[in-house]
Design a protein that fits this description.
alpha+beta, four-stranded antiparallel beta sheet
Length: 158
């Protein structure tokens, strides 16, 4: 996956606001709208842009309870890890899931309408998977920063 300085500028722009028109993005990046559309299409097809999303307030949509959950598996076999990754992907309560190094094997960001709903989720999700050794829940008191923006470094020109 290759990108140049203009692509880097486009990526910076769309990470801040992906609702801008190709005309506006192109003007900010020094391109025509058509050239900008071609670049955006290529960035998406090559997987550099994975998705175009909106960040939604969990509180505004009735899911004010937010947790970070550290999950430790019984063993680190590839089939066990793959099965748990599939379970994460299929759960609507799990907003983000990360396979990590360290004391836990996974870190999950989970939302729920109430603590009772979260408890029900734990019973349906964590207690039925025999490969889970333990999980530890940390309740989020305040979401200080929410985003998906990745710092973009323009490639050096040779």
């Amino acid at each position: 996956m290759q990108y140049d300085r203009i692509d880097a500028r486009i990526l910076e722009i769309v990470q801040k606001n992906n609702r801008l028109t190709s005309e506006v993005i192109g003007a900010r990046a020094g391109l025509s709208a058509t050239a900008c559309q071609r670049r955006l299409k290529r960035l998406r097809s090559e997987g550099i842009i994975e998705a175009d999303v909106s960040i939604v307030s969990p509180k505004a949509v009735g899911r004010p309870i937010q947790m970070l959950v550290l999950v430790t598996m019984e063993r680190a076999r590839s089939d066990i890890i793959d099965r748990f990754k599939k379970a994460i992907r299929s759960s609507v309560e799990v907003v983000n899931g990360f396979y990590v190094t360290g004391d836990a094997d996974f870190i999950l960001y989970v939302t729920a309408p109430t603590m009772e709903d979260y408890e029900e989720f734990t019973r349906r999700f964590f207690y039925v998977i025999p490969d889970i050794k333990s999980f530890k829940t940390m309740v989020v008191l305040d979401r200080v920063k929410a985003g998906c923006a990745v710092p973009i470094e323009a490639p050096s020109e040779n």
